[in-house]
């Protein structure tokens, strides 16, 4: 005999209140099965007693709520799930933190929130062991929490089946696991740095020194808040923010990016994924970009889309699925509008969506590069420009932005080399010639300086329509006047 709809609605309301789970619309056999299973195991004689137990705050009530939540949520996970995020963790975030901490207290604190059966936490531990040769001399704290005690018990054992190793190399398995029959047992050295603990993200208080959740360098909470109601998600994300130290990172699942929740964070965009960083003082040029007068990039037709041949030859990106041009165009227009409004976080989220639809979109890479440059993160900007060029080696604005970065860093020879590619791709690119003239003037190569400044002036006078394409919103007459002043002083 099934549980009546009236009782199911009462139970859903209690669980939502105590856990933040969004159970609206949940009905059918899966809900009936979960509630019936939990009720049968609770020891209650009637469904009314069970509902009373769930609703009355107590230790036993907490256990029963957690059991029911475990039955209502999916525990699908495996090692290095979402390869792109783990690549960012391995190649960017952890090296940055390790270098910073190596010079101070050699202390790293990481939290895997919603760790399920432990594959995520152990994946992080493996990366740490690979990046820190003398890890025994470090103070590593890796906290792994979940609401499901059964899942945590399995995680603590460190025993897995082959299904948990999709995409993991045989060399890594051989190096870090012992295989006995169909059981893969992780080496005990990894268990020493991980502390598994039960935690309800909605009800439990953090940050707190009592549960060791404070001053975190990294928090990973992926595919957990997808089950939460909006208010609960906001509350949990705010608690995550307060649990991070200055410069700490939050990584969430791809389906959990919604700018409303992450307003306090600075968005850091990487190939195929974005992460959130707590920075009390935003990076230099959060408000002021590196681009000076006459150096703006207008995101209209930034780069031609790569030909089929180029896309086929690229070794960097592989299309995930067939591109929906209409959807891609609409999202790009939204991103461009957000960019023009200096809403960089929201723009970055849209651009990552585009690259998930079509990893061969060079325009999205260029805009992500410009966002990083405007925030003062030139290292990331360079990487995005390089990605755009790998996709389309005639991507003019990627070369031009790179030249601006090198100019800003004082690497004038590199900047000049890139600008020569710019004017080769577009012989009417006024700003390319203008910048070349200014660079050669700084290098005391006066003949070259006069030549390039002269070409820029001639284009402005003889080919005004073509010149306008590279001028963005700059004024041609004002630029002519500036060129004449520069030539006079050579």
How would you characterize the overall build of this protein?
- The protein is α/β, with parallel strands linked by helices and 490 residues long.
- 53% of the residues lie in helices and 11% in strands.
- It is built from 21 helices and 10 strands.
- It has helices at 5-19, 29-42, 47-55, 59-72, 83-102, 119-131, 149-157, 170-176, 188-191, 230-243, 308-313, 325-340, 344-357, 362-374, 378-391, 396-408, 412-425, 430-442, 446-462, 464-471, 476-488; strands at residues 107-113, 139-146, 159-160, 177-180, 183-186, 194-198, 216-221, 244-252, 266-270, 273-277.
- The strands form 2 sheets. A 7-stranded mixed beta sheet has the order 6-2-1-7-8-10-9, sandwiched between helices. A 3-stranded antiparallel beta sheet has the order 3-5-4.
- Helix 2 (29-42) packs antiparallel against helix 4 (59-72) and helix 19 crosses helix 20 (464-471).
- The longest helix is centred in the first third of the chain and has 20 residues, at 83-102.
- The protein is elongated.
How much strand?
A: 5-15%
Sequence stretches where pLDDT stays below 50 over 5 or more residues: 283-324
**Could you report the average pLDDT, rounded to the nearest whole number?**
82
Instruction: Sum up the overall morphology in one term.
Output: elongated
How many separate helices? 21
Helicity level: 40-55%
Describe the main β-sheet briefly.
7 strands, mixed
Strand order of the largest sheet: 6-2-1-7-8-10-9
Number of strands: 10
Structural class based on helices, strands and sheet pairing: alpha/beta
Distance between the termini: 93 Å
Question: How many whole angstroms does the radius of gyration measure?
Answer: 27 Å
